[in-house]
Write a structure and sequence with these properties.
The structure is a homodimer of 194-residue chains. With 194 residues, the first copy, chain A, is mostly helical. Chain A has a domain of 105 residues. In chain A, 70% of the residues lie in helices and 0% in strands. Chain A is built from ten helices and no strands. The radius of gyration of chain A is 19 Å and the shape is elongated. In chain A, 37% of the residues are buried. At the A-B interface, α9 and α10 of A face α9 and α10 of B. The first copy, chain A, binds a DNA duplex (30 and 30 nucleotides) through loops.
DNA sequence: TGACATCTAGAACGATGCTGCTAAAACGTG
DNA sequence: CACGTTTTAGCAGCATCGTTCTAGATGTCA
């Protein structure tokens, strides 16, 4: 039909990820293209704007992050599932430092309003499966589900571990941090017992 | 002597703070000056570059944040001091949401390398008094000081609470978060007992 | 083999925003 | 009451970067 593409969209996403690791959140398209080895204009055959590229990177990283998180949450034992989910966060940051850094590029809450309209659906629904898994974890841990308990679980399993890891994201995440994650996570979960 | 200044440096810092609250981390000098009501060029009689202005804002916010933190850490009872220090973080974010947002502008570790040379000294030493207070807290809690224990205290008192509060910074920080901060902080401190 | 669609390649365009410049203004001092 | 100094006021230069455009290349399918 036509000339085959020399570069894949994922190559550009990878390059964007590396550019962020190298130059921070305001990496330029020029830096991205230089990493790919492609001319500047080539991005626009895959991503209509710079924002599409970087939001696309964020979405891909979030989804990749969710794979392991969902696996952890699927463990048969409820307590184990909660602990494994919390510990998945430092683990992910160790195994995928650059992707973890890309996670810090945006916040969903903000992105829902500011993202290009053809991406808002993706941004809005990207957390749906995690939300379902959280509800499940909540029911298994407390036997019931309420808005407050959901917040407690989310805080214990994602927010707090992420906050602990955050200063190390992109670099070396110390091993002892796992102890801190586990200790703080279970302590917060106990708040839901009363 | 000379024409008196119509605007103070602090006015520009305040405006930078508000511009960040309004337009995010890449607020422009134009937006800052619009908030002051000053012409664009006026900034340069106080701050040689844009970076000086925003790093200056960050430094001012850090120092303001430290005031309450040092007060909390000065409490006679060691345990109370640790708890009060941890709880100071959500409190500060409630009382000074815009300044708290300015704290997220940079990270000291990065800034030490990237800041303008005439500010690196300020950046490097801005945490010194906090470091001393942390050592003191550590000694009072555990009776001894080691690198590991210092990391535990820092994580429990600053890193973890900050991580919990971070998603809410700039907006409303829920009251129940204080419970989570206290629970996770004491749980992490217990790690130092073994 | 030729037409066509899609891509590469890189230059050009346009907007934005930081920085420096000039002229006028204001105020204390000699 | 001039003078010198410092600031206001806003414009202009300059660089950067996102985006678009044009020309040429390349492979597929009829």
């Amino acid at each position: 039909m036509a000339r085959p593409a020399k570069f894949t969209p994922d190559q550009f996403l990878d390059a964007a990820r590396d550019a962020v690791a190298l130059h921070g959140r305001d990496a330029t398209l020029g830096q991205v293209c230089a990493l790919v080895g492609a001319p500047t204009g080539s991005v626009y055959h895959r991503f209509p704007t710079r924002e599409h590229l970087f939001v696309g990177l964020w979405l891909r990283s979030v989804r990749q992050f969710h794979v392991g998180l969902l696996e952890a949450a699927a463990r048969p034992d409820g307590r184990e599932a909660l602990a494994a989910a919390a510990l998945h966060i430092p683990r992910y940051c160790r195994e995928h430092p650059a992707e973890a850094l890309a996670l810090t590029l945006y916040r969903q809450q903000v992105l829902v309003r500011s993202a290009p309209t053809d991406l808002t659906d993706d941004v809005r629904t990207v957390n749906d499966r995690i939300a379902a898994a959280t509800t499940d974890l909540c029911r298994r841990r407390y036997g019931t589900v309420s808005e407050h308990l959901l917040t407690v679980v989310t805080t214990a399993v994602r927010q707090c571990p992420y906050g602990l890891v955050r200063p190390y994201v992109g670099g070396e995440v110390p091993q002892w941090l796992d102890d801190a994650v586990l200790a703080s996570s279970t302590a917060i979960l106990r708040l839901g017992d009363s």
